[in-house]
């Protein structure tokens, strides 16, 4: 089996272009102080086809989620859906082997989500969705979702349909759903 190295950085011209455009987008939103439906659509158009390709880009989205108000409930819902989809795609499906969230990536996610006073509701939702979608996650993410009250162990196990869900660090056998 190929070793999972985590979604750190993909290379390529498209990635650099998105990275620069995402930074400009974030700067504009922060200056405006609020995110509108048009802003969410613009971000979606910018990154949804290719996705985010570097932790720095994910960190920008996590910071925007924390720092910027949304104009109304509809904008919040659209942002939440986009934010979750982008982070899940990056962390679960953006690295090889796909469908796995290794320890390094899990620790980065939990650290990023917990910065500045704890995880936002959107960060909790995104990480819970990672646990649901991934074939296997490091136990760091399981502990996060259970301690934060995002998911109960029973919910995690039911979402996985009896498949392997957690990897123990240092090569110990993974936890298996019963």
Class derived from helix and strand content: alpha/beta
Largest sheet: 4 strands, mixed
Main-sheet strand order equals: 3-4-5-6
Point out poorly predicted stretches.
1-6, 8-14, 162-178
Helix content: 55-70%
Q: Distance N terminus to C terminus?
A: 24 Å
- What's the order of the H and E elements? HEHHEHEHHEHHEE
Beta fraction of the residues? 5-15%
What does the overall shape look like? globular
Q: Please give the number of β-strands.
A: 6
Rg result:
16 Å
Number of helices: 8
Description:
With 178 residues, the chain is of the alpha/beta class. 60% of the residues lie in helices and 8% in strands. It contains eight helices and six strands; from the N terminus they run αβααβαβααβααββ. The strands form two sheets. Strands 3-4-5-6 form a four-stranded mixed sheet. It has a two-stranded parallel sheet with strand order 1-2. The chain is globular, with a radius of gyration of 16 Å. It starts with 12 loop residues before the first helix and ends with a strand.
Fold blueprint:
Layout: H1 13-32, E1 34-35, H2 37-47, H3 55-67, E2 69-70, H4 73-93, E3 100-101, H5 103-114, H6 121-133, E4 136-138, H7 139-147, H8 153-160, E5 164-167, E6 175-176
Parallel strand pairs: 1-2, 3-4, 4-5
Antiparallel strand pairs: 5-6
Features:
60% helix; alpha/beta; 178 residues; 8 helices; disordered N terminus
Task: Tell me briefly what this model is.
The chain contains eight helices and six strands. By secondary structure, the chain is α/β, with parallel strands linked by helices. α1 runs antiparallel to α2 and α6 packs across α7.
């Amino acid at each position: 089996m190929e070793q999972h190295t985590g979604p750190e950085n993909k290379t390529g011209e498209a990635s650099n272009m998105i990275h620069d455009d995402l930074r400009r987008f974030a700067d504009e939103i922060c200056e405006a102080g609020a995110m509108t439906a048009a802003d969410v659509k613009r971000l979606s158009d910018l990154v949804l086809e290719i996705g985010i390709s570097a932790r720095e880009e994910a960190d920008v989205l996590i910071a925007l989620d924390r720092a910027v108000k949304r104009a109304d409930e509809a904008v919040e819902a659209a942002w939440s859906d986009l934010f979750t989809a982008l982070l899940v795609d990056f962390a679960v499906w953006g690295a090889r082997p796909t469908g796995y969230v290794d320890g390094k990536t899990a620790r980065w996610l939990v650290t990023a989500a917990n910065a500045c006073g704890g995880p936002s509701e959107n960060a909790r939702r995104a990480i819970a969705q990672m646990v649901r979608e991934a074939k296997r996650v490091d136990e760091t993410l399981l502990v996060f979702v259970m301690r934060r009250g995002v998911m109960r162990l029973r919910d995690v196990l039911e979402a996985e349909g009896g498949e392997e869900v957690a990897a123990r660090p240092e090569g110990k056998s993974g936890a298996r759903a019963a």
